[in-house]
Every structure is written in structure tokens, then in C-alpha cells.
Amino acid sequence: MRRELKRRGVHGLKVLFSTEEPIRLQPAEPEKEASVSCGTIAKRQTPGSMPFVPPVAGMIIAGEVVRELMKG
Questions:
Q1: Is the CB of residue 35 less than 8 Å from the CB of residue 42?
Q2: In 1-72, which ranges are continuous DSSP H helix?
Q3: Nearest-CA neighbor of 14 among 53, 67, 72, 70?
Q4: Shortest CA distance to 53 belongs to which of 23, 13, 11?
Q5: Structure-derived torsion over alpha carbons of residues 8, 47, 57, 14, reported in degrees to the nearest 10
Q6: Does residue 31 have a pLDDT over 70?
Q7: Is the pLDDT of residue 25 over 90?
Q8: Mind listing the pLDDT tens digit for each residue in 36-67?
Q9: How many angstroms from the chain centroid is the CA of residue 19?
Q10: Can you tell me the mean pLDDT for 5-19?
């Protein structure tokens, strides 16, 4: 999203992002690579986010909005 806004010439927006590199799961052993779940085979994937991260990010953004409103 940040890249797209920059490409479109949008500047001056506050954004929340992390510079932390994503954690990559180690490749599973061939015989353990797939797991059976509800009769289907699912490969291990790196999660995009932990369940608590999006709500916390929203609270950080909301706090910043309140601070901005208090200034002006």
C-alpha cells in the first residue's frame, strides 16, 4: 500500500508499518511436509500475522488519531 501511494504521488500520510523481517518457517522433512486436516492435505505455511497483531495495530492508529485531534 505504501508503495502504491508513493507511485500515485500521495505524500504526508501517517502509516503504521513494521521494519521487522517476517519469520520464515523451516522447510519440513519430506514425510512431514504435509499434514492431514479434515480429510484434506495442507502444506505448512508461514502465517501472515498473529491473531492479536491487527487489533493492536488498530489501537495504535486510534491513539495517534486521538492525539492529533487533541492538538488541533
A1: yes
A2: 2-7, 53-71
A3: 67
A4: 23
A5: -20
A6: no
A7: no
A8: 555 555 566 667 778 888 999 999 999 999 99
A9: 11
A10: 88
Alpha-carbon distance of 58 to 42, in angstroms, equals: 31
pTM of the model: 0.53
Instruction: Specify the residue for cell string 487489533.
Output: 55
Q: Which residues pair with 36 in a beta bridge?
A: 41
Alpha-carbon distance of 51 to 44, in angstroms, equals 17
The cell for 28 is 519440513
Q: Which residue has the cell 502509516?
A: 15
As a 3-state breakdown, the chain gives helix, strand, coil percent values, each rounded to 5, of 40, 10, 50
For the record, the C-alpha cell of 52 comes out as: 492479536
Question: DSSP class of residue 15?
Answer: -
Show the cell assigned to 55: 487489533
